[in-house]
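Standup notes
- DV: blocked on the single-chain target, sequence here:
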Amino acid sequence: MGVPTLGCHCRVCSSRDPRDNRMRASVLLVHNGQSAVVDTTPDFRHQALRVGLDRLDAVLYTHAHADHILGFDDIRPYNLRQQAALPVYAAPETLETLKRTFAYVFDSAPAISTIPQVTLHPIDGPFEVIGARIVPIPARHGDIGVLGFRFGSAAYLTDFSILPASSKPLLAGLEDLVIDALRDTPHPMHQTVEQALALIEELQPRRAWFTHIAHELPHSETNARLIAAGFPHVALAYDGLHFEVRV
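- DV (later): unblocked, structure below
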């Protein structure tokens, strides 16, 4: 829902720490002068303006829930600026939901105004975008399948509750792992902090970052708690966080 959450005045939603202001989860990959975004959230326009994103070369989707796809229409300026359709990569079921949700893009009806111009690419194994090899990481988000992505020495796994055993070898030897950790209280579709830490201990990345964080976790206090618990290499991600990745 983002933080502050609408109508809420809890201590995190009322915090003056800018790291407690959280737009919906997404990540930008930049390599060889090109850019790809993972998920076009309802905040995508503001996120792109914040980082000065003048070029977009591909979109990857983890799954088709509203907080991950509803910025889809805002790719239009890149179509116009670059005079090209954008490649979109996602699992087949995610592409089908995109087609239903944004039927005006795919129904072949004459368009009076601009609409997103895309080419759809079903993910069925590793693929390459912006000169980097992307490895899809299957996971479960409650009762639906979702994808995480590995790119070189880093991986991004948002919105999942179960990581199948078959996916774990794909995450060996990571330097950076961005991982779902919604809150402390159990949730049927997301990891708790405790579950995320258990998986981090199993996978042994050099660093780990929590994402898709609800308003139950204050940034500074939670980071201090992680250090006290023996996890100095784990921290909450925050809007604007960036780091280099070996690809």
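- Follow-up: The radius of gyration is 18 Å.
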